[in-house]
Write a structure and sequence with these properties.
The protein is an alpha+beta fold. It has helices at about 80-90, 110-120, 130-145, 160-175, 220-230, 255-265, 295-310, 315-320, 345-350, 365-370, and strands at about 5, 10-15, 30-35, 40, 55-60, 65-70, 100-105, 125, 185-190, 195-205, 210-215, 245-250, 275-280, 290, 325-330, 335-340. It is built from ten helices and 16 strands. It has an eight-stranded antiparallel β-sheet with strand order 14-13-12-11-10-9-16-15. It has a six-stranded mixed β-sheet with strand order 2-6-5-3-7-8, sandwiched between helices.
Amino acid sequence: MSRRRDRKGKGKGKGKGKSQRRPRTAKVEWVGGLVQTPFTIESNDGGASYEPLMALWVERPGGFVVAHELLEPGPTQGRLGAALDAALAGVGLALTANAPTRIRVATQELAAEVRDTLGPGIPIIVAPTPELDEVMSTMGQALGGSPTTLFPSPAITPDLVERFFVAARALWAAAPWRFAGDAQIIRVDAPSLGIDGACLSILGAGGQEFGLSLFESIDHYDAFMRVASSRPDPARRIDLGGEELLLSFDHERNVPKKMVTQARELGLATASENAFPTLCRVSRDASFGPPSAQDYALMTALAAAVGTFTAMHRELFEKGEGLPARRTFEHDGAPAVTLTAPYDVMYLLDEPDAIASPFSAMGAVTPERTHGAPSGKIGRNEPCPCGSGK
């Protein structure tokens, strides 16, 4: 759920204050756009609540927010340019150290609006603006709460969400959790996204939570398991060791109403009312935040691939028999992903002589193994004793 704020508390910011001065930089790019915020504003006068857009400008390099302004419902034409004008005024007053030498926005329409504000002299580039998604993701993690919309940023398009839903339906139909345990982790590589050695866990063998959980690395997965297997301590700050990307299937009644409405308006079908797919990021402190466009693309590719991969190598997961497996999957509109199981057999796959005999290190999925890793740590589907609710 979103962190609700009173209309009186919405405020406006322009990145002002002498404490925010930075060393001057020769080449400075300002990245701007209108982004969906990860929170809801409620009216004091009985009006409808709303999730405001924000006119946002970020400096590169450095990621410094030079201007941000919350927008009330209504026309947005001219608002990004106005925020830019205020930020440039801050430069003139020496409130901001670096004037831009280049501007980047995501659309031609925004470029035209900004050009009217800037006039000639500063080049304007039309290109993706992932830096803005990063700011909103960080804000969402700080506020806590799961995403309340399918479109937490303008970079997440209806086409991207539709592909995610199609892949999620395929994953639900394949139901790899019937024979794959959550401790049977899979290595994920996606070079086009800069992902090398991520760690994927299939959720659902315990019959509690169904989906996919992607960890940044095997070290992150191990850190998560250490927290999960440790005795809860209210005085100790939770640290999961890194961020987690989580695809969950939930009953529609447990999903924010706005998400369900958006899916119906777009004609996005789910496998059943129990299988509404949602995607979120889980931060190191176990708080939830919105996904980025890249997160959607990556999880779409994984959801489309995992069902096929586990079915092709079912004996490996179900009985712990057969050779290790590595396959690359490419689906239209999704990045290529390479899956390897077990996770730590890359060196064996590169040396054919080393895998001449059947491989059984993963072990069979038994009732005992379903809920526990070989080391005796608890499984991903058991309630986490750290208090995160995971």
